[in-house]
Amino acid sequence: MPARAKTAVVAEPERSERERVCGMLAALGFARISTAEDGFSALRLVEANLPDALVLSATLRPSDGVWLARAVLQKPLPVRPAIVLTRVAGLLLPGAEGLLAEGVAIIDRPVRQEALSEALAQTDVCVRKLPERFIQRRDALLDRLGVTGHEGRAYLETAVGLAWMDMRLARRLTTALYPMVGRRHGVSARKVEQSMRYAIELAWKYGQIEEQYRIFRGTIDAQRGKPTCGEMISQLADMLRMEEVRE
Q1: Radius of gyration (C-alpha) of the chain in whole angstroms
Q2: For labelling, which of 12, 208, 226, 246 has a CA lying 20 to 30 Å from the CA of 85?
Q3: Strand, coil or helix: 88
Q4: How far apart are alpha carbons 168 and 51 in whole angstroms?
Q5: pLDDT digits (tens, 9 = 90+) for 20-51
Q6: What residues contact residue 214 under an 8 Å CB cut-off, 6+ apart?
């Protein structure tokens, strides 16, 4: 199966720098790159295109790059892009620590190919940091469902996090998601699926059925009685995404 073409949005007010960054992204394998000169236009492009990466300047107008990064992070997007924020060397950015904690990479201008490549590697969906608030909510949901400390629980935690960042992975379980979880934990994709299935079976055998019904309602096949691994991952990722809308 051919690899899916990667996409990006570049939000940069300076034309020369915008063209340089686009050229670097093209050299790194990004096939479709959209550009914007201001934060509002860039946000609309991110919402419409759901890119794999967003490279944005801290000097965006009328709202700066920090605002745009936060705006994207707060959107319940089915695909949460890798975010690389570029700044003038030595410039102090208010709120930078919070952005770093949410997986945003910050690099100096003018952008260098090596620095951009490293930043994108650090923010790739496979290794990107998850916000602490997401981790707490995810773990609380699994606790409510009765998913215990079995190794399958750890694989489910990783799988739900990856699907929350990129819902396309939930449609490619055996070809993408399970292998990614396996690489993270040093096991095979088959081991990942088997262990998650067993963890779900234990939860539905010993957990609180009222709580399980409250979370899944009518989304589970009545004849089967418990969710598949894919149903569990998709449902929890969707719930966690929609919780952000209600905040």
Answers
A1: 20
A2: 246
A3: strand
A4: 12
A5: 999 999 999 999 999 999 999 999 999 999 99
A6: none
